[in-house]
Amino acid sequence: MGVVMKYKYLSVNTVLIILSFHCLPILAFNITAIEGYLLLAKANEKQTSNKREFLWTGVVSNKVDNLNKNWNRPVIENWGISDRYPGTPGMPIPLVKPYSETDPGFSGPNGEHYGIEIEFADALIAPRQPDSKNVRLYTDFGQTGASTSGMTRAEIHIRSTLQDMKVKEGDTLWLGWSELYSDLDMEKITTVFQFRNQPNEQTLAEAGFTQSEIEELVNADVNKGGPAVGIITTPINQALHYQFSVREGTPMNWVVPADHTHITSFPVEKNQWYDIIVQMKYAQDNSGRFRIWIYEHNAGEVVNYSITDAPEWDFQGPTMYSYPTSFLPDIPSPEIRHGVYRHERVYASDAVAEKDRYMTKHIGPLRLWAGPEEAGFDYVAPK
């Protein structure tokens, strides 16, 4: 019996994973024993709730500068980071290099030391909310070697948090965040947000699959493909607009029908905060929903957002890739990718103009709510 047909009859074992904090990270981050205990307690407390709030003011793994490295992340969140040039010919993927090596004497528009930087707890610009900081995601397609590498990205991958919140197929997730672009690539499409549901090898193992079954699944490309639902910035008449798309099909065989995409009428402006609220119901059938509200926000402005406000787009239909009916429904693993993924220059051989060289995104407070209740809107809405 093939592994795909076997899923229908597979008895999934419950796997208990005991997470422990190794002492080395605490020493590396100069955290006292008491602070380490409080961080662990906070992490455990968060796992019992269907809500999450990230103000980006917590302890981070390191500084981002020429003496350390080009990215950091929150100590208590096990999130992935994409900080390199993916999809390039001639693997392995080249690591991001400092300007001191590729372009001696050069630094970025705000003193950046690398062509890609991801910095949590950043204070380069005024925060969207007074008691918060930002996440800064910087990319430079003009760094020597970057344009010939094909693509560049600065993204955070939020999967473990959704696993802790037990988000799965059929569930509704509310998200709210603020974002501001201090640099924009006005020439090419950039992916700035992704909803993904492909399982990876780890989530398949946690679901009880053997190594041979996982290898067969990987060979069948069930873990491949881009976002099932995505947000991009797309150039139209020398201006950038948000565009939302929902794919229909499987991870490696999909289309975007005409009624599965929407482009905003307003352009995306530099140095403007945008408050974004999303209702996402993960589903392979027509019960799925992707509803999104976008508001411009100016400093000092009092917000009064309501679920009764007209959404920018309200898509109803499948919001996940489809899988064989014998594929266990709880294996697809929801994941959020937030940042800047510049991929359209892979076929471009022309020089990158100075005005299109940089793409810098700042993320303000991020909030999540798992559950269909409309109270989720009020909780995640930017304050």
| Percent in helix | 10-25%
- The coarse silhouette is globular
Number of strands: 17
Uncertain parts: 1-47, 87-92
Q: Given the structure, what is the number of helices?
A: 10
How much of the residues is beta strand, in percent?
25-35%
CATH topology category name = Jelly Rolls
Number of domains: 1
Write a concise keyword list for the protein shown above:
eight-stranded antiparallel β-sheet, 383 residues, 30% strand, 10 helices, Jelly Rolls
Question: Helices, strands, pairings?
Answer:
Layout: H1 3-6, H2 23-28, H3 33-47, E1 51-54, E2 80-82, H4 99-102, E3 116-122, E4 134-140, H5 146-149, E5 152-158, H6 160-164, E6 172-183, E7 190-196, H7 201-206, H8 211-219, E8 229-236, E9 239-246, E10 248-250, E11 253-255, E12 261-263, E13 273-281, E14 289-297, E15 313-316, E16 335-342, H9 354-357, E17 358-370, H10 375-380
Antiparallel strand pairs: 1-17, 2-5, 3-4, 4-17, 5-16, 6-13, 6-17, 7-8, 7-16, 8-9, 9-12, 10-11, 13-14, 14-15
If you had to describe this structure to a student in words, what would you say it looks like?
With 383 residues, the chain is an alpha+beta fold. The chain has ten helices and 17 strands. The protein has helices spanning 3-6, 23-28, 33-47, 99-102, 146-149, 160-164, 201-206, 211-219, 354-357, 375-380, and strands spanning 51-54, 80-82, 116-122, 134-140, 152-158, 172-183, 190-196, 229-236, 239-246, 248-250, 253-255, 261-263, 273-281, 289-297, 313-316, 335-342, 358-370. The strands form three sheets. Strands 1, 3, 4, 6, 13, 14, 15 and 17 form an eight-stranded antiparallel sheet that branches. Strand 13 and strand 14 (289-297) form a beta hairpin. The longest helix is centred in the N-terminal third of the chain and has 15 residues, at 33-47. The protein is globular, with a radius of gyration of 21 Å. The model is unreliable at 1-47 and 87-92 (pLDDT under 50).
